[in-house]
Amino acid sequence: MDFNISAEYGIPVLKVNIGTNYQLLPYVEEYFSMEGGEHQLERGGSSTRSFEGGIHLDQIEEFNDLCSKILQYADEFWKEYGLENYYQPNIKEAWSNQHHRGDETLVHTHSGSPIVATYYLKAPENSGRLYFENPLEYHQCHEPRANINRRYVDIKDGTLIIFPGFLKHGTEASKTDLPRTVLAINFGYENRKPVITQLKNVRSIL
User: Fold this and answer.
1) Residue 88's closest CA among 182, 191, 187?
2) What 8-state DSSP symbol labels residue 173?
3) What is the dihedral of CA 192, 2, 107, 81, to 10 degrees?
C-alpha cells in the first residue's frame, strides 16, 4: 500500500491518490437537490450533515467499496501515528460537502475523533486548497519562523487526506464556478481482536 506521510507542524498527515470515483457524484447530487442545506462550519455551499438526523454515506451500498478502501488507509495511518494497536479505526459517520464560487469551510477541529479523512470526489482547479493551522501558534508566536500559522495542501480528484482530529483545518474559498465535492469521515475505534480471543490467549498463558 503506497502512501506519503508528511509532517505538518511535527504532526503526521497522510496524503495519497486512491483514484477517482465519479460514479458516486450523481448520488451525492441527489441528496443535495433534496435539501442542500448549509452547515454551520460552511460559509456558503451545501452539506449532507445539515439534513435532519444526517445522511450517513458510509451506510449506502454504492459507497461501500470506497469506504472500505479508505478504512484500509486509515488503519495504516493509525499505526504510523502510534495509536494503540489493540484497537482499530472504524467509521463513525461519513458525509459530503459541496462548494461553488466563494464558498469555504471555516477553521475547525474534529476533537471527538482520533483521526479524520477527506476524500475529493471532484476538485477542479482553483476550487480551494485544504489548509492546516499550527496547533502551537500561541506557544511559538515569539519564534522567528516563516509561514508558521497556515500550511496548504494541493488537492485533485481522487486525493485522500487522513490526519489527527485535533489538527485545526479549513478550506480556501473557491474561485471557480465548477463544484468541489468532498467526502468527509470521522473515525472511531473498536477492539482489533474479539474479546473472547483475548481471554483464550490469557488462559493458554496461565
Assistant:
1) 191
2) P
3) 40
CA angle 185, 187, 191 (to 5 degrees): 150
Report in angstroms the alpha-carbon separations of 134 from 9, 42, 54, 168, 200. Answer: 6, 21, 30, 7, 45
The pLDDT of residue 203 is 46
- Among 131, 134, 153, smallest CA distance to 145 is for 134
Residue 60 grid cell: 449506502
> How far is the C-alpha of 97 from the C-alpha of 147, rounded, in Å?
28
In this structure, which amino acid lies at residue 127?
A: S
Alpha-carbon span 21 to 82, nearest angstrom: 30
Query: Is residue 179 within 8 Å of 99, Cβ to Cβ?
Result: yes
Rounded Cα distance, 68 and 197, in Å: 24
Q: What is the dihedral of CA 150, 151, 156, 160, to 10 degrees?
A: -100
Residue-wise pLDDT for 124-170, tens only, equals: 999 999 999 987 766 667 777 666 678 899 999 999 999 999 999 99
C-alpha cell read off for 179: 463544484
DSSP H or E segment with residue 27: helix 25-34
pLDDT in tens, 12-48: 999 999 999 999 999 988 887 765 555 555 656 777 7
Round to whole Å and give the CA distance between 123 and 164. 22
> What length is written for the chain?
206
d(CA 102, CA 43): 8
